[in-house]
Design brief:
The protein has helices at 6-25, 29-38, 42-59, 63-85, 88-110, 112-115, 121-133, 139-154, 156-170. By secondary structure, the protein is an all-alpha fold. Helix 4 (63-85) runs antiparallel to helix 5, helix 5 crosses helix 8 and helix 7 (121-133) crosses helix 8 (139-154). It is elongated and about 75 Å long. The termini are far apart.
């Protein structure tokens, strides 16, 4: 019995994969409209978009913005859904994520000049944010339980004093007088 030719096998696998992708993408009204306007199959639009996105990410174009969008938008949506569903374990997971995200953001503000010189920083940041947010890894919970909880508890009085001082300072006008109101 002759063996099938390698190219025929590869072509059959590609056709099968494209058919599966087309089935999954068929649920996207945006891709459907784009396919109708451009007369390009939606699976090719998706593959082309994924390729351009990958090239941009690997070259460093827009990676800072991408990190901020992924680190903020997805968790914000999931947080709202958790609040609306009243699932306390999910609410806790997202609250912990926001504490870790805030802590990381504050550190990033002060270390920004140094971070600029770290090659592939935003790729590492994206990996870190995904690790922290994904329910499968629960990285934020790990960081909170093993590091942040102790730091925040021992610094709680200092943090409260700084916040109180900031509130008093914010209550004054530009000339140092108390604001009306």
């Amino acid at each position: 019995m002759p063996q099938p030719r390698t190219m025929d096998t590869v072509q059959a696998q590609l056709s099968s994969s494209l058919a599966q992708l087309k089935g999954k993408l068929g649920q996207s009204p945006t891709l459907q409209k784009l396919e109708e306007k451009t007369h390009v199959p939606k699976e090719y639009i998706f593959i082309g978009g994924a390729f351009i996105f990958t090239l941009a990410f690997l070259s460093g174009v827009g990676t800072g913005t991408l990190c901020n969008v992924i680190g903020f938008i997805f968790p914000a949506i999931k947080s709202v859904r958790a609040i609306e569903s009243h699932a306390s374990n999910e609410v806790t997971q997202w609250l912990v994520y926001w504490v870790v995200y805030s802590f990381f953001s504050v550190i990033e503000i002060f270390a920004e000049t140094l971070l600029y010189w770290i090659p592939f920083y935003y790729r590492f940041k994206l990996g870190f944010l995904l690790w922290a947010m994904l329910p499968q890894t629960r990285g934020a919970k790990y960081l909170y339980d093993n590091f942040l909880k102790d730091i925040l508890k021992t610094s709680e009085s200092k943090i409260d004093a700084v916040l109180k001082d900031a509130k008093v300072t914010a209550g004054r006008g530009e000339n140092g007088n108390k604001k009306d109101g």
